[in-house]
Automatic annotation (TrEMBL):
<feature type="transmembrane region" description="Helical">
    <location>
        <begin position="31"/>
        <end position="47"/>
    </location>
</feature>
<protein>
    <recommendedName>
        <fullName>histidine kinase</fullName>
        <ecNumber>2.7.13.3</ecNumber>
    </recommendedName>
</protein>
<feature type="transmembrane region" description="Helical">
    <location>
        <begin position="97"/>
        <end position="120"/>
    </location>
</feature>
<keyword id="KW-1133">Transmembrane helix</keyword>
<keyword id="KW-0472">Membrane</keyword>
<keyword id="KW-0808">Transferase</keyword>
<feature type="transmembrane region" description="Helical">
    <location>
        <begin position="67"/>
        <end position="85"/>
    </location>
</feature>
<dbReference type="Pfam" id="PF07730">
    <property type="entry name" value="HisKA_3"/>
</dbReference>
<keyword id="KW-0812">Transmembrane</keyword>
<feature type="domain" description="Signal transduction histidine kinase subgroup 3 dimerisation and phosphoacceptor">
    <location>
        <begin position="205"/>
        <end position="270"/>
    </location>
</feature>
<keyword id="KW-0547">Nucleotide-binding</keyword>
<keyword id="KW-0067">ATP-binding</keyword>
<dbReference type="InterPro" id="IPR050482">
    <property type="entry name" value="Sensor_HK_TwoCompSys"/>
</dbReference>
<dbReference type="InterPro" id="IPR036890">
    <property type="entry name" value="HATPase_C_sf"/>
</dbReference>
<dbReference type="GO" id="GO:0016020">
    <property type="term" value="C:membrane"/>
</dbReference>
<dbReference type="GO" id="GO:0000155">
    <property type="term" value="F:phosphorelay sensor kinase activity"/>
</dbReference>
<keyword id="KW-0902">Two-component regulatory system</keyword>
Amino acid sequence: MSAAVVPDHPWLLPGALTPEARASRRTPRDWLVDTVAFLLAVGWALLAFGDATSPDPQFAHNAGPSWLVGVDLAAGLGYCAALWLRRRWPVGLAVAGLPLALFSVTAGLALLVVVFTVLVHRPLPIGAALVGFHLAVIPVYTVVRPDPTLPYWATVAWTVMFVGIVVAWALFVRARRQLVLSLRERAHRAEAEQQLRVDQARQLERTRIAREMHDVLAHRISLLSLHAGALEFRPDAPPQEVARAAGVIRGSAHAALQDLREVIGVLRADTADGDAAPERPQPTLADVPELVAESRAAGVRVTLVDEVAEPTRVPTAVGRSAYRIVQEGLTNARKHAPDTTVGVRLAGGPGRELAVEIRNPWPVGTSAPALPGAGTGLVGIAERVTLAGGRLTHGRDGATGDFRLAARLPWPA
């Protein structure tokens, strides 16, 4: 059972807590039940003692020797007092009361209370063994303390019936408590699973945002590095070109810092309010020409062939994926083949696939050091394309020798 439920119900699973802990956790209801059980057991013991010593043979039992009556009363009252320990040591108390089951009338109700406790709070094999012993000694008890008003087998039958009632009641209480415990544990588990689903959804959303920001930052920083490299290799450039390159560097750095601030703010947010912060509008296929123009402004030779039929009908998710693929292809070209011409081709229509292809010659030599990269951009693009139900291929084209990044995305009619 769940450990989180046990402290709220220390008597449902005795043994899960130490005896000291269970004793200290006794609730007002437990005190009431224990007091009533003690008073009823003492009342029965006094009543049975009165019947055993009554001069009226109609009510008196065959008490046997006079000393047995006194021993029976002392043992019965002592066992009644021991009922206060039944929650801490029910099995030990039951074992200690086994001899009393052979002869004691005054301890009869206290013995039934202990049997009830063991059946409710201890494993069923222990309770079954205890009940079996009491049933086995009923014939012996009836011989030692016969009832003068009933025949032998009638006394045995009545005693078995009372034991059976106690057993049935105890099993009912045990089943009910286990059901309540199971329902509460399921409620706790369902709550924990719901919280886990919320946490997983939040983590997936943050991962998605981080992947988007990776694409954006890689693109902007590669532009920044490209212009900085141009200034480094051309310190004698005209002031107008230096000013223009410095402006592009400043704008790219500012945009990159803004993007970085946004993604860190989202990843640090631990509350629902932080997760509910509005996001910037996401790019679509219609933004690809602007992306190409931005690369051209940075000095990259890019050609764009747009053969998309009905571009306004491109699904938003498909268009965003196509934009990210083009962005990653241009970023990789600037990193690894800065002096080559990059070709971008878009084609497709409703009911067909949207084809995205970025191609550039395999670099032979470069005039600037390659930009660093983690190599995760293509991994993220491949994951994006797979989730969209498309196909991605990348690598060196065996026919032309060019590096080719191509994706096919589903475009429902």
